[in-house]
Structures are given as C-alpha cells and as structure tokens.
C-alpha cells in the first residue's frame, strides 16, 4: 500500500476504512490502521464489507472490517493457549543481526457459559504478553533493555429477554508498560 503495512480495501487508503470490534470503532485516528484491542482466541467471526452498507456506519470510503467476539452459551467452554516464538527458529538473513535464541510466549485464556439457561450468558478472556530486546543508541552505541508488557482483558454479558432479542454489554481493557526504542535508537533484536 502507499502507507507501509496498512490495509487497503476496495482501493481506499487505510484512513478510508473502518475497523470495529463488537460494533465499536477501533480505528487509529492518526494512521487509519486498526488498534490491537482484541484477544485472538475470543474472536467468533470477522466480516469485511465493501458495498451495500447501511448509513449507520458512515465515515468510510473503502470498507468496513467488523470483528465479533464470543458470547458464551448454555454449555461451559474454555481454552488456554501459549504461543511460543523464537527468533532463531526463523530463516537467517545475512544483512540482519544474529537472531536471539530466546523463547517467548503469549498466553491466552477464555471461558464462557451460562448464568441462566437460554437467558443470560457470560464470556471472559485474557491475554498476556511480555517481550524484551537489546537496543543500542545510534551515536554512542550504548546498549539498554527495551521491554514491553501488555495485558488485555475482555468481559461480555449477553441477555436474551425473548427468542428474537438480545442485549449485549462488553468491556475491553488494555494495560501496557513499555520501555521501547525512541527516535535515534537502533533495536538489534525484538
């Protein structure tokens, strides 16, 4: 795309698109890209629409991407996942620094079920990420540790007063502590 790493839908620039999670706009107002506020294991479906879209969405020329998270159900379900990565598992590149041989994990948990059968359901999810890297300043080449700790949480209640109606309340929270590369800093390994 003209803007590196951004999504183009139907020829529209990134800022011409609308990204939503459970119907709430999560588009970055500066760059037009989606903010990462979702938990991967909590996603039920993702739809992309490019035409025939209701005027209620407005404010887009390219397309709409809406991600809907899970809502629980009459049966209890849950999951636990650890995604392991290691730079040394990737293919080598002669022009990049030596990859760091360190295993890192991203932990995700979900649980959902009923409070009242056929009437009230709950869904909870969490995601924890901790990364660290060795960074160096450009002019003085002084090394320091660049760290990123991020926790994402989601809670959702769904109430069905009748068979044809649903009321949903959703809460998403992200906490992040970051000591990262700033302008004029080279990051050697992430």
Question: What low-confidence regions span 5 or more consecutive residues with pLDDT below 50?
Answer: 183-190
Query: Which percent range describes the beta-strand content?
Result: over 45%
What integer is the average pLDDT? 83
Number of helices: 0
Rg, Å, rounded: 21 Å
Overall 3D shape = globular
Would you list the SSEs in sequence order as H and E?
EEEEEEEEEE
Category by helix and strand content = mainly beta
Distance between the amino and carboxyl termini: 25 Å
Counted beta strands: 10
Largest sheet descriptor: 6 strands, antiparallel
Q: What share of residues is helical?
A: under 10%
List the helices and strands and how they pair.
Elements: E1 18-21, E2 24-25, E3 43-49, E4 64-69, E5 77-85, E6 104-116, E7 120-137, E8 143-162, E9 165-179, E10 185-187
Parallel strand pairs: 1-4
Antiparallel strand pairs: 1-2, 3-4, 5-6, 6-7, 7-8, 7-10, 8-9
């Amino acid at each position: 795309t003209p803007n590196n790493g951004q999504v183009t839908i139907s020829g529209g620039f990134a800022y011409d698109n609308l990204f939503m999670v459970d119907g709430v706009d999560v588009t970055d107002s500066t760059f037009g890209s989606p903010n990462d506020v979702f938990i991967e294991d909590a996603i039920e479906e993702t739809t992309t629409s490019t035409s025939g879209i209701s005027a209620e969405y407005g404010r887009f020329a390219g397309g709409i991407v809406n991600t809907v998270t899970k809502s629980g159900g009459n049966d209890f379900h849950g999951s636990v996942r650890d995604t392991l990565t290691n730079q040394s598992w990737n293919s080598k590149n002669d022009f990049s620094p030596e990859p760091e041989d360190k295993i890192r994990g991203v932990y995700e948990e979900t649980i959902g079920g009923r409070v009242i059968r056929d009437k009230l359901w709950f869904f909870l999810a969490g995601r924890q990420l901790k990364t660290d890297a060795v960074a160096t300043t450009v002019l003085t080449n002084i090394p320091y540790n660049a760290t990123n700790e991020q926790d994402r949480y989601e809670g959702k209640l769904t109430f069905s007063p009748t068979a044809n109606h649903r009321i949903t309340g959703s809460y998403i929270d992200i906490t992040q502590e970051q000591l990262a590369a700033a302008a004029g800093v080279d990051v050697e390994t992430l």
